[in-house]
Write a structure and sequence with these properties.
With 466 residues, the chain is an alpha/beta fold. The chain has 3 domains: 84 residues, SRP54, nucleotide-binding domain (Four Helix Bundle (Hemerythrin (Met), subunit A)); 193 residues, Rossmann fold (3-Layer(aba) Sandwich); 164 residues, Orthogonal Bundle (434 Repressor (Amino-terminal Domain)). It contains 22 helices and 8 strands. Strands 3-2-4-1-5-6-7-8 form an 8-stranded mixed beta sheet, with helices on both faces.
Length: 466
């Protein structure tokens, strides 16, 4: 989402890095360039003015001017200012010993219904008993959509009563949640194509019936400054306790995310980063600032690996690798684990330093289709061939290529990657326990203590060489 802004800021900092010292004139020039970059990213003008003034004041100090590395100092100032601008999220406020009503608000098409299901699934995984209730009787099949999501994700959804109106549904949902001792009741309200009196009146009536503990506004980040206007309207007329930004995986310029907290004064709670059930992130200002400034997101990368990869399987694979027993069945396991991580390009861009090469990553041809192609190649081999790759000569390679629908060159490329990984595994085995402990300590330092589990996934092994 922030690719354009990130590229602009990275270019500004690279230019600044070539300066010996940071003069006041250089600060002013840099601030002008950052201001333009933020405005082009659709950040609200009052927010930009305040943001720039804060950084400039800190960057003019004598300590900064004499800095050995002025660009790094400015990057830190911008990073800290972004964190402050974005603000911190807060945990959802659950009522003790009774049901917590959560009102989902927003315009039609913002992803409100899907987000309601995603939040319910997240809370269910955290041990909460959650009931979903659809109140959108104006949009065709809206209630059925929520019911289908409930079936897909194994969530409890209030049964549909034909002809019942939103306020009555809300009252029935609250009674059911109370009687059945649910921890959380998530109410998916109706949306409109734009803010109007009918929408606000209905939302206000529902609010007065259920007295929500949380009122979350779901906003499509691709709306730009319109998203900030919508948030201001809902805050003034209904009252909101937090926002959820959806389509953060899209091509929007990012201004809504950077303006939302400053304009509304309420925290961003979640970020929707895809259509899948688990494509919902708890908002973290520091991690988002890291991404915007091209610093990657190691924490997010490790969390993704920990969440989506079977740790028991990863441990078994690691033990085989370290014992020197590495064949194409093990490579197949690695490839499938990579596929579980999601969009491989997105994952690679989370690695610090690689985000600035996003264009090269996009041009490289590395994507999830490549993963599927490599999986197909290995599955076209016999069990004997997977255990004994040395037997794969010309005729066998041609048969495998035909079976997988690829060229012999594709088969050779996969086998070359396998050989490179096998060579690495042999070297690791020769290092012995002490050598391995030393390497693991170094990796732990790099990954914040997560290397033990993360290394077992070996997320980029098959892509070491093109």
């Amino acid at each position: 989402m922030f690719a354009g802004l990130s590229d602009r800021l990275t270019g500004i900092f690279d230019k600044l890095a070539r300066r010996g010292i940071l003069t006041e004139a250089a600060v002013d020039e840099t601030m002008r360039e950052i201001k333009i970059a933020l405005l082009e990213a659709d950040v609200a003008l009052p927010v930009v003015k305040s943001f720039i003034a804060d950084i400039r004041e800190k960057a003019i100090g004598e300590k900064i001017v004499k800095s050995v590395s002025p660009s790094q100092m400015v990057v830190k100032l911008v990073h800290d200012a972004l964190v402050t601008l974005l603000g911190e999220s807060k945990p959802l406020d659950f009522a003790p010993y009774q049901v917590t009503p959560v009102l989902m608000l927003g315009l039609q098409g913002a992803g409100k219904t899907t987000t309601a299901a995603k939040i319910a699934l997240r809370l269910k995984k955290e041990g909460k008993k959650v009931l979903l209730a659809g109140l959108d009787v104006s949009r065709p099949a809206a209630l059925e959509q929520l019911a289908d999501l409930g079936k897909t994700y194994g969530l409890d959804v209030l049964p549909i009563v034909p002809g019942q109106q939103p306020v009555s549904i809300a009252q029935r949902a609250l009674n059911e949640a109370t009687v059945s001792r649910y921890d959380v009741l998530i109410l998916d309200t109706a949306g409109r194509l734009h803010v109007d009196e009918a929408l606000m009146r209905e939302a206000a009536e529902i609010r007065d019936v259920v007295h929500p503990r949380e009122s979350l506004l779901v906003v499509d980040a691709m709306m730009g400054q319109d998203a900030v206007h919508v948030a201001s309207e809902f805050k003034e007329k209904i009252g909101i306790t937090g926002t959820v930004l959806t389509r953060l995986d899209g091509d929007s310029r990012g201004g809504a995310a950077l303006s939302m907290r400053a304009v509304t004064g309420v925290p961003i709670q979640f970020l929707g980063v895809g259509e899948k059930a688990d494509a919902l992130e708890v908002f973290d200002a520091k991690r988002l600032a890291d991404r915007i400034l091209g610093m990657g997101d190691v924490v997010g990368l490790v969390e993704t690996a920990m969440d989506k990869i079977n740790q028991e399987e990863a441990q078994k694979t690691t033990e085989r690798l370290l014992s020197g027993q590495f064949n194409l069945n093990d490579l197949l396991d690695q490839i499938r684990q990579i596929d579980k991580l999601g969009d491989i390009k997105g994952i690679m861009k989370m690695i610090p330093g690689l985000s600035k090469f996003r264009d090269k990553i996009d041009e490289s041809g590395i994507d999830n289709r490549l993963i599927k192609r490599q999986e197909a190649i290995i599955l076209s081999m016999t069990p004997y061939e997977r255990r004994n790759p040395d037997v794969l000569k010309a005729s066998r390679k041609q048969r495998i290529a035909n079976g997988a629908g690829v060229s012999v060159n594709d088969v050779n490329r996969l086998l070359k990657q396998y050989e490179q990984m096998a060579t690495v595994m042999k070297k690791v085995k020769k290092m012995g326990p002490l050598g391995m402990m030393s390497m693991m300590k170094k990796m732990d330092g790099m990954l914040g203590g997560s290397a033990g589990s993360f290394m077992g996934t070996n997320p980029f092994g098959p892509f070491g060489t093109k």
